[in-house]
């Protein structure tokens, strides 16, 4: 056999052998080594299964949990995250699981949660997004790191705090008034409030952050919701990188198409602002969030400039977060008030005492102590986040554990909020009085026992905006109506990006106006 023929045979064989070795290293040797390393430190968990990890088990548990009817109770964790509930009970409060080949250390001990989220050494960066989440969020504030994050955070802080927040009040009130005008046709009838609040919160974030209306942003919201559904159903599907590069699934193709359409819609909004300045109709791009982003996009200073892609991603992030967060919070709060008429009446008396029959005003919103207690208890029972994911950027120690680089941390911050050891045997009951003396006293000064908006430097920038919008909407509803639960309501919380009611929340409205 000639030397050339030997070379022709040897090269492909060598490449195949090298690829096989790397495949076995990535999909067998490294997972087993990590498993053994953490087992030796007392961290157990479901065993690693070749290629798929624990994804098939998780998908089966979730399907089984959702197939069963649920009584009207607030112990929702076994339904919305049955795999975490099952494995915490079996393996302990911190355990190792597998997202395909990727090791994922699930932590639910408050001290470890606090240590990770408050880490100032940047040892726990955000995990690289999946292909679907990258289409949904891109390089927005929720996902970027380093100097980019610091720059965006300053923009967010300016847009959603202090005087800027106060100036948003009239737009929020106008949006709530529009919704309540429609509600006049539902007095004595059933109304589904989750959808009502979806429209309301979409209108509010459109007006306050982007200077538009829900109708103008309707297409963006629709496409973002479709992207969120695609991302959610992909969470526990195993993807092999080299196969994904050769073949794109229908979900990937659809998500790419949706992301491009969203980009086109946002660019139209940007051009509208630019044209107003060019035509002399405005002397600036505006002081709302979109105006600040467009200004940064045109900044001549390289340190402050924002790329077009980053601008689009930031808009997606705030459209989604600004709508989804308050939508869920309002809906679950109304459900709890409909069930607990005594707390509904206490909240109403407080609203009337502070505002009378007038619209809420910013200076007095902070006086709503009972409503704050109710909102906090709602957030405890029906948290905004399913969990927070970080990556271990380098070998690091947390608590007594030494963690290898390049594994994931799943911070199950909802678990402490449902922990009887922290809250007592009545942990699954709606008891706003837990927060009568504030969050610190209510949690016995344990910051990680209750952190619906996160803690540490990367806590939610829109927290004040979300709570203000919620208080304004609830105040205006309670001034006009009593709310009772419809017999048609079926309790079915599900996990999407946050906790949502699968079949909506149906209530009956009774007007407080004797002339209606």
Automatic annotation (TrEMBL):
<dbReference type="GO" id="GO:0016705">
    <property type="term" value="F:oxidoreductase activity, acting on paired donors, with incorporation or reduction of molecular oxygen"/>
</dbReference>
<keyword id="KW-0408">Iron</keyword>
<dbReference type="GO" id="GO:0020037">
    <property type="term" value="F:heme binding"/>
</dbReference>
<dbReference type="GO" id="GO:0004497">
    <property type="term" value="F:monooxygenase activity"/>
</dbReference>
<keyword id="KW-0349">Heme</keyword>
<dbReference type="GO" id="GO:0016020">
    <property type="term" value="C:membrane"/>
</dbReference>
<feature type="binding site" description="axial binding residue">
    <location>
        <position position="460"/>
    </location>
    <ligand>
        <name>heme</name>
    </ligand>
</feature>
<keyword id="KW-0472">Membrane</keyword>
<keyword id="KW-0560">Oxidoreductase</keyword>
<dbReference type="InterPro" id="IPR001128">
    <property type="entry name" value="Cyt_P450"/>
</dbReference>
<keyword id="KW-1133">Transmembrane helix</keyword>
<keyword id="KW-0503">Monooxygenase</keyword>
<keyword id="KW-0479">Metal-binding</keyword>
<dbReference type="InterPro" id="IPR036396">
    <property type="entry name" value="Cyt_P450_sf"/>
</dbReference>
<dbReference type="Pfam" id="PF00067">
    <property type="entry name" value="p450"/>
</dbReference>
<dbReference type="InterPro" id="IPR017972">
    <property type="entry name" value="Cyt_P450_CS"/>
</dbReference>
<dbReference type="InterPro" id="IPR050665">
    <property type="entry name" value="Cytochrome_P450_Monooxygen"/>
</dbReference>
<dbReference type="GO" id="GO:0005506">
    <property type="term" value="F:iron ion binding"/>
</dbReference>
<keyword id="KW-0812">Transmembrane</keyword>
<dbReference type="InterPro" id="IPR002401">
    <property type="entry name" value="Cyt_P450_E_grp-I"/>
</dbReference>
<comment type="similarity">
    <text>Belongs to the cytochrome P450 family.</text>
</comment>
<protein>
    <recommendedName>
        <fullName>Cytochrome P450 CYP749A22-like</fullName>
    </recommendedName>
</protein>
